[in-house]
Amino acid sequence: MQDIAELNARVREDAQILSRLTGEVGRVVIGQKRLLERLVIALLADGHILLEGVPGLAKTLSIKSLGAALDLDFSRIQFTPDLLPADLTGTLIYSPKDGSFSTKKGPVFTNILMADEINRAPAKVQSALLEAMQERQVTLGDETHRLPEPFLVLATQNPIEQEGTYPLPEAQVDRFMLKVQVDYPEKDEELQILEQAGLGVLAVPERVMGAAEVLRLRKIHRGIYVDEKVKRYIVDLVFASRDPASYGLDIAPLIAYGASPRATIYLAQAAQAHALLRGRGYVTPDDVKAIGLDVFRHRIIVTFEAEAEEVTSAMVAQRILDSVEVP
Length: 327
Fold this sequence. Notes:
There is one protein chain. The protein is of the alpha/beta class. It has two domains: about 30-195, 3-Layer(aba) Sandwich (Rossmann fold), CATH 3.40.50.300; about 225-320, Magnesium chelatase subunit I, C-Terminal domain (Helicase, Ruva Protein, domain 3, Orthogonal Bundle), CATH 1.10.8. The protein has 13 helices and 13 strands. Helix 1 crosses helix 2 (about 35-45) and helix 9 packs across helix 10. It is globular.
């Protein structure tokens, strides 16, 4: 218990630094507090994040502002239908003088990669991100190049019903730790947005931390205590998506595929980051429930029957989170 008390004391100090980070970004992005918190959770937990919402909800602005508040290399790629994999990863350039090849690294070689409107590029470009996202490396020709530390992909996408979008492959979507649905702001927040836009000057976030501080906080994050009962609760949630009947849920006909083991790992890591943001050195079931929907919503694949009944993956995930017994 003494160790937990010491960890709590250290974590409270780190939570204040993180609060300053979200505060700096929040000076630019009005409202969207949940979105900003999820961005910091992905940063702490070394996981990528996918933001989905209609155009104009400050998805791009949120990511750019986070990049400005962090003293890290930042690259932005606007995904378009004519984008090629080499435009992302780089390529080998042939020199006719001596018959050799030189490596030209692409924009993926950065700390924070913003993939804007990722689902407007074809599957071959989206797939080019897979190795970078999972292995933190890129292969050009017969050479493998490590990506810098930290490396984080922050992607935005428009709803797939919109014109000119391609659905992301399941294998790529599963690489994202979190998928966050970005909603419209509240009425008073929209009024603040209007007043700020009327001034014609956007606030610029101050630099809060650099790479060394991010890596230090990630080390603290990995040390956040997860009790055995909480671990079992996380596993129960994942298994309920695969075998709902065992947990008293009658939603089996709605689920084609349940969450993968990657969901188990990401749910625990995201819950640790959520606890760290709250200034706690230990994870509670409330941390798990708070972040669970964003971990599950893109990993539970619903059946045609569910689609016919207009039941979404998020609805199924919320049902599981509401129904599985909390320790």
